[in-house]
Amino acid sequence: MENESSVTRTGDEDDASFLALHARRESLERDLTLAHQRQQFGTDPGEVVKAGEEERSLLADLDAVMTLIRAAEYQRMPGARRW
Question: DSSP letter at 7?
């Protein structure tokens, strides 16, 4: 077994931020599902409209998080180019 002390703190921080991005994605996807269900099954027209607005905002947030995840996945690849 290799020496575990060779793992750098930066690697741990990168892993933590990568996992945090995925946790954020999961949370956004859950919130999107709830907003969609409120639109589909809501009885109050005002709440249905509010759920639609929330869904649009959540979709924009999810797009941004997915872009960050794709960038982080690329950087984790062996030989990835650093700009």
Answer: S
